[in-house]
Every structure is written in C-alpha cells, then in structure tokens.
C-alpha cells in the first residue's frame, strides 16, 4: 500500500488563501470592473434629444404647493420640440379636487445625457419650474421642483411614456 500523505501549505492549514493568488484575483476583479464600466457607460450616457421624447406621457407627482398637500397627474403629448399644449391636470389636494385642460408642459433645456429643465402650467398665473432627468431608454423621466423662485412649492414625481 502506498503512503498517501499530502503536503499542505502553511496558509491552507490555517484556512487562509495563498498570497500568491491575490494578484490574480485582483487582476480578475479589475478586468470585470472595466467590462462593467464599459457596459454602464454605453447605456447610461446614450444620447438623449427632445425628438426622442416625442409621444404621450403620464406624469404623476406629489408634494406641497401654495395650496397645501397635493397628489397630481398630468397627461400630455410632447412634440419633437419638447412642447405640449394639451395637458390635462388632475389634482387631489387640501384646497380642492379638480381637473384642468389645455395647460402646457415645455422642456426648456435638455442635455445629451438626459438632465434638463421644464415648466408645467397649472392655471392662470400658476406654474412650476422643474428639473428633469431622463432615464436611459427615454421612456421615463423624473421631475422635481427645486427652484428658489417657487416658494411654497415642493413637488417631485415621475413621468412614464405611454406605449
């Protein structure tokens, strides 16, 4: 019968990985990070233009306005110039529940990476200045009112493109 003794390294006997394998693991991790970054960069920074946003949208948002707490939904169709004149705004809030038609939504700026700004009217002498961020794929964008020019308005929500 043959004596089958195994030679075990100092590190294996202590249950630790060999330090000789560390550079290979680090190189593999680095390579995976580079590949992941390449794919992330490709999708995250796809070019976005106003024409890409053309179509029907539903924007849902909530927050506080000069009239108190509200939950609102705006339905509109954006042109290839980023403008809508057919906004129907349905509001449920502390002041009243109402539906208004013929309002406007206007994207006033949009970078190729999806950041920009827009204005949404809410009636005569009423409107919100919104920051927007378009998601990769151009089917969703977020809105938030962070304008110091809109005191008493703290709104945030999401718009989804209708199919």
Structure description:
- By secondary structure, this protein is α+β, with helices and mostly antiparallel strands.
- It has 2 domains: 10-44; 50-161, Porin, CATH 2.40.160.90.
- It is 17% helix and 48% strand.
- It has 2 helices and 8 strands, in the order ααββββββββ.
- It has helices at 10-13, 22-44, and strands at residues 55-65, 68-78, 83-93, 97-110, 115-123, 126-134, 140-144, 154-161.
- It has an 8-stranded antiparallel β-barrel with strand order 1-2-3-4-5-6-7-8.
- Mean pLDDT is 83; it is low at 40-45.
Descriptive key words:
alpha+beta, Porin, eight-stranded antiparallel beta barrel, 2 helices, about 50% strand
Which secondary-structure class do the elements indicate?
Answer: alpha+beta
Mean pLDDT rating: 83
β-sheet strand percentage: over 45%
CATH topology of the largest domain: Porin
> Per CATH, which architecture of the largest domain?
Beta Barrel
As a whole number of angstroms, the C-alpha radius of gyration is: 27 Å
Largest sheet: number of strands, sense, barrel closure: 8 strands, antiparallel, barrel
Distance N to C terminus? 75 Å
Low-confidence stretches: 40-45
Number of strands: 8
The ordered H/E elements are HHEEEEEEEE
Widest sheet: strand ordering: 1-2-3-4-5-6-7-8
Integer count of domains: 2
**What share of the residues lie within helices?**
10-25%
Query: What is the CATH domain class of the largest domain?
Result: Mainly Beta
What is the overall shape? elongated
Task: Quickly count the helices.
Answer: 2
């Amino acid at each position: 019968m043959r004596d089958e003794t195994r030679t075990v390294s100092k590190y294996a006997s202590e249950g630790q990985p060999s330090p000789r394998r560390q550079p290979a693991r680090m190189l593999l991790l680095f390579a995976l990070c580079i590949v992941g970054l390449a794919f992330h960069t490709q999708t995250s920074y796809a070019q976005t233009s106003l024409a890409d946003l053309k179509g029907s949208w539903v924007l849902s948002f909530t927050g506080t306005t000069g009239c108190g707490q509200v939950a609102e939904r705006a339905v509109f169709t954006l042109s290839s110039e980023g403008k809508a004149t057919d906004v129907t705004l349905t509001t449920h809030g502390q002041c009243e529940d109402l539906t208004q038609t013929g309002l406007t939504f206007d994207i006033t700026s949009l970078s190729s990476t999806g950041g920009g700004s827009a204005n949404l009217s809410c009636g005569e002498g009423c409107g919100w200045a919104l920051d927007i961020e378009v998601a990769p794929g151009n089917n969703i964008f977020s809105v938030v009112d962070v304008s110091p020019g809109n005191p008493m308005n703290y709104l945030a929500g999401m718009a989804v493109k209708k199919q």
